[in-house]
Amino acid sequence: MVLRELQIRDFALIEELELSFYSGFSVLSGETGAGKSIIIDALSLLLGARASIEMIRTGAESTVVSGSFSHNESSRRLIKEWGILADEELLITREINANGRNKCWINGRMVTVGQLAELGPFLVDIVGQHDSQSLLNPHGHAELLDRYGGEKHLALLASTDELAGKFLALNAELNKLHRDERERNRRIDLLAFQVEEIAKANLHLGEDEQLEVERSRLANLDRIRQALHYVLDLMGETYDDRQSLLHNLSSMESELKRAASLDPSLAKVTSRYMELSLELHDLYGEFRGYLEDLPADPTR
User: Residues 60-108: pLDDT tens digits?
Assistant: First the structure.
């Protein structure tokens, strides 16, 4: 792994700094207070170190640190697991805002600080006196063993990694097909159930209109009942009521019959009146029957 380039903006005392590194051994030297540790702190941010708004240069709203690295097999494998394109160059950027928010990117893909911390040990070892972090980091042990196996082993490892990727892709496709089949069967069962329920309902043409009429009737049940009681009271709920319509009709019928017996020319109109009186008596009976058949509970 090689750190190729480091860009720092508005970090601590640094307004803007760009460092390029090349193959071989590079040294940052300077007297105490020259800013060597500030550069190391900025690099640490790219490796997932904890950030603080105090790192932002006074007067700035944010600080941005970017680093360009060359890949190794471990870093390439890890970011591929995250679904990030593993180009030849690994570009990491981290931004810290004055409100304390962190934004991190790997090859243009936004990631978390935790992912930077997981990737960091494969990129750079920042060591002090008596430190041997790579040897103590379990994530790096597999890479050490792979390197020890030589080029033949590394080629086999790359081939295995490729086959594993294909296996995972095929397995994901198989799982998707199984899910699609289960969803298809679930949909079939649902539609079959709905068809069965519709058949059980025994629906017929025009039932919607009938139900709407019934709904309106039940919603206005009290008003209908009041209207019929009023009509029946006027017509003669009891025949003893001398003011009722039916009682008066009977009285009028008797008088007309008497008059027709005296004047035969009244016979025809008297007959018409008797038909009308009979029809009104029939209507009275139908109104009573309708009222008795009304449901007691409108919420049925």
Answer: 999 999 999 987 888 888 888 898 887 778 899 999 998 888 899 999 8
| Domain end residue (candidates: 129, 145, 162) | 129
Both 23 and 122 in one domain: the answer is yes
Nearest to 3 by CA among 116, 122, 175, 105: 122
118 and 215 in a common domain: no
How confident is the model over 107-166, as pLDDT tens digits?
Answer: 989 999 999 999 888 888 776 655 566 677 777 778 778 877 887 888 888 888 889 889
Instruction: Indicate the residue among 129, 153, 182 that finishes a domain.
Output: 129
Indicate whether 153 belongs to any domain: no
**CATH code, 84:** 3.40.50.300
Question: In whole angstroms, what is the distance from residue 93 CA to residue 88 CA?
Answer: 16
Same domain flag for 20 and 115: yes
Mean pLDDT (the chain) is 83
pTM over 0.70: no
